[in-house]
């Protein structure tokens, strides 16, 4: 028995001849992290997947109107925003994020332990901190309040 993974309509599908499992993309990433840990594999693959996932999400958020983008980032927890800034430290995405945050919010974020840490926490901790932020974005997409554009030009 081998499960064939693929992504369709914002969900991770795992299928074989007798079983079909559908997960949200974020939940699928958390599953990948847990499988890596259980199989005692290097976490770098999971971390790369999570970083790529959030990079694409943030690139899509940067294509929203300034008001929508700022509202989403204001509603995100300090931990989640600090985590995103930490993931993209020294990259253009960090500057784009910073430009959408108030000075007061930035100073609060810069005092967060996640932001001050020398290294990123393990992938499973990252996923847990960022899960509420992703669920909020996903909820707004599903209810039609926002429409994310693919940074490469397609809508999803």
Helix content: 55-70%
Please state roughly what percent of the residues sit in beta strands, choosing from under 5%, 5-15%, 15-25%, 25-35%, 35-45% or over 45%.
5-15%
End-to-end Cα distance, whole Å, is: 31 Å
Structural class assignment? mainly alpha
How many separate structural domains? 1
The value of Rg in angstroms is 16 Å
How many helices in DSSP terms? Answer: 8
Low-pLDDT segments: none
Sheet bearing the most strands, described?
A: 3 strands, antiparallel
Q: Any idea what the shape is? A: globular
Secondary-structure element order, N to C:
EEEHHHHHHHH
Strand segment tally: 3
Give the averaged pLDDT, no decimals.
82
* Spatial strand sequence of the major β-sheet: 1-2-3
Structure keywords:
8 helices, 156 residues, three-stranded antiparallel β-sheet, mainly alpha
Descriptive account of the structure:
The structure is a single chain. This protein has one domain. α1 packs antiparallel against α2 and α1 runs antiparallel to α8. The longest helix is centred in the C-terminal third of the chain and has 20 residues. With 156 residues, the protein is mainly α. It is globular, with a radius of gyration of 16 Å. The mean pLDDT is 82. Helix content is 58%, strand content 10%.
């Amino acid at each position: 028995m081998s499960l064939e993974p693929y992504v369709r309509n914002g969900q991770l599908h795992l299928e074989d001849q007798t079983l079909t499992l559908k997960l949200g993309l974020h939940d699928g990433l958390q599953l990948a992290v847990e499988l890596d840990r259980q199989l005692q594999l290097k976490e770098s693959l999971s971390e790369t997947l999570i970083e790529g996932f959030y990079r694409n999400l943030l690139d899509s958020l940067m294509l929203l109107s300034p008001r929508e983008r700022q509202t989403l980032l204001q509603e995100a927890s300090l931990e989640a925003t600090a985590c995103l800034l930490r993931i993209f430290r020294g990259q253009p995405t960090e500057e784009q994020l910073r430009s959408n945050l108030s000075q007061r919010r930035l100073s609060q974020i810069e005092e967060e332990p996640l932001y001050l840490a020398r290294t990123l926490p393990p992938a499973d901790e990252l996923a847990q901190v960022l899960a509420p932020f992703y669920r909020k974005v996903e909820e707004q997409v599903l209810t039609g309040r926002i429409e994310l554009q693919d940074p490469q030009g397609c809508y999803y």
